[in-house]
Amino acid sequence: MGKRLTLYILIALFAGIGVGYALNVSYPAGDKQLADIADLLKLLPEVFLHLIKMIIAPLIFATLVTGIASMGDSSALGRIGGRALAWFITASLISIGLGLVLVNLFQPGAGLNITSATPVSDLATADFTLRHFVLEVFPTSALDAMAKNNVLQILVFSIFAGLGLSAMGEEAAPLVRGAEALATLMLTITGYVMRAAPMAVFGAMASVIATRGVGIILTYGAFVGEFYFGLLLLWTLLLGMGGLFLGKRVFLLARYIREPILLAFSTASSESALPKLFEQLDRFGVPRRISGFMLPLGYSFNLDGSMMYTSFATLFIAQAYNIPLSAGQQIAMLLTLMVTSKGIASVPRASLVVIAATLTQFGLPVEGVALLLGVDTFLDMGRTATNVVGNAVATSVITKWEGMLQVPLDPDAPEATPPHDTPEQGRRGLHLDPEA
Fold first, then answer.
1. With contact defined as beta carbons under 8 Å apart, do 49 and 271 qualify?
2. How far is it, in rounded angstroms, from Cα 209 to Cα 230?
3. Is 231 within 8 Å of 383 (Cβ atoms)?
4. Residues 358 and 351: beta-carbon distance below 8 Å
């Protein structure tokens, strides 16, 4: 099913573009019937995302709790967390710095002189403060955090729960087994939900192209093309960094994560790719006790594509308004984005909010965000797929660093093949890669 699912998603992607284009040229702009058809098509990805969101909270909770509890050593957790944060900071500097270098090199906003008329008042910039971010980290209710799919708050609660279970010893065994069973259940449900992924991809692409047309990409062609070139460079850098630790196996990793990347790109949603990414990293040889900790942490602090976009887009707006920024100001912007981008997981329309907040801080016209709104959906697809790549590489590297990388399963084997990091295998340390 794995190989066929990739093929079905690709077919659905191009079919959606074709149907969307046909609808776009068949109806005049602003036609109500076209809007109704697009809204109906949009129902497909919305239902799919609802099903994915149904899985996210219990999956993250179960995998984190079992991962931490199975470590049995808080010092191991601290060591992994420290190495993860070191990797995240390095990747953040590379991502944001690359965005600044490329936007200065290409100058995509130079000479545009576009007057923005699109309202941006619905962006939640008032919430984007240090105080708000710190309070957002700590949940007042675990159930509320899970109901809202607040990954950062679920992460904090799960760490406490996992450490508590680890400290309880044998008394916690029934709860740990229950969490292990819950994780297995969520992945089984994921297998059912993933069968609807091609329909979701088709609906998402057809809806966007039908209402906006392919011309929207051409209108901002230079900006979109240069940004995607930057993402390609970032992928190369991230996989190259991974290759320093994983060797040639980094190419195998790229093969394993092709489906999560396609899902993230097609739906512009990191959530849609998370369950499948867990499954594929299982098959690549990453123990669940590592991925269960690393992926939720990475989805809060290691959004490489989004971070590159914030620096690239902020300077694009400055160029569009003919506002020069000195090297010192750009370095200050880089350091600012290093901090502010860490809170984007808990803010609606996250990347645009970070950009708006940064524009305000540096005295740039915040209404310039409106210049991005027309193509933000297409840009979001690329940066979301990049986030998946960054977190897959980070998780695999930390696993290798810990000496826990296992022998991979065949990426094209049937999905029914059990993951090689079952709870018992994880505790006994079976199937370790001799090269790890």
1. yes
2. 24
3. yes
4. no
Q: What share of residues in the chain are helix, strand, coil (percent, to 5)?
A: 80, 0, 20
Q: Which among 173, 214, 174 has a CA at the least distance from the CA of 18?
A: 214
3-class secondary-structure state, position 195: coil
Cα separation of the two ends of the chain: 29
Name the residue among 315, 414, 396 with its Cα closest to residue 355: 315
pLDDT at 130 over 70: no
Q: What is the largest CA-CA distance in the chain?
A: 68
Which residue type occupies 64? L
CB 395 within 8 A of CB 290: yes
Bridge partners of residue 406, in order along the sequence: 432
Checking if the pLDDT of 5 tops 60, the result is: yes
Task: Report whether pLDDT(91) > 70.
Answer: yes
If pLDDT is split at 50, 70 and 90, which confidence band does 428 have?
A: very low
The CA distance from 353 to 126, in Å, is 9
**Alpha helical stretches, state H, 169-286:** 173-194, 197-212, 215-219, 221-246, 249-256, 258-267, 270-284
Q: What pTM was estimated for this model as a whole?
A: 0.69
Contact yes or no for 418/282 (Cβ under 8 A): no
Q: Which residues contact 222 (CB under 8 A, 6 or more apart)?
A: 106, 108
Interval 244-262: pLDDT, tens: 999 999 999 999 999 899 8
Within 321-344, where are the H helices? 327-340
Bridge partner residues of 432 (DSSP): 406
Compute the CA torsion angle 224, 265, 284, 253 (nearest 10 deg): -20
391/424 Cα distance (integer angstroms):
26
> Tens digits of per-residue pLDDT, 283-340?
999 988 888 888 888 877 788 888 898 888 888 888 887 888 888 888 887 877 776 5
Sequence length of the chain is: 436
Positive/negative CA dihedral, 51, 56, 62, 63: positive
Which pLDDT tens digit goes with each residue over 401-414?
988 888 887 666 55
Closest CA to 313 of 232, 387, 417, 383: 383
CB atoms within 10 A of CB 144: 11
